[in-house]
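Team,

Forwarding the record for the chain on the shared tracking sheet. I've put the sequence and predicted structure together so nobody has to dig through attachments.
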Amino acid sequence: MSTITLTDQDKITLRTAAYGAVALVAAAGATGGSPHKAATRGSVALCSATGTVGHVLSEKKRDVNVYGKSVAALANQVLPALSASMHLLGQQDPAEATNFATTVTVAIDAAAQPGPATAEMTRKITAALAA
């Protein structure tokens, strides 16, 4: 494990970003199948993370609050958290930032239902990770 120093708030941001990205993809693809099954597939993928990111994501905290009445409301929380997570990790350990981005990408791929709405949300998430 690397020597990254993360505050409790930093960890909340990382979990909000990762689990929120899965929730966004599941919500965006809701018409293509079961959002619950999609979210479950994505969450299981997040549990396979390694390194510092894996340790943070595996902490079963109830501090992730990514609920909204619309996909837009959810995106307003999650997309900034993704960018903040990448900035935070990139400052301390660029390899761990790459690990986070890869982990989130694998999770959203696992959660994705085929369709244009899901493809567009995946593009937005990927852009937030690159910001």
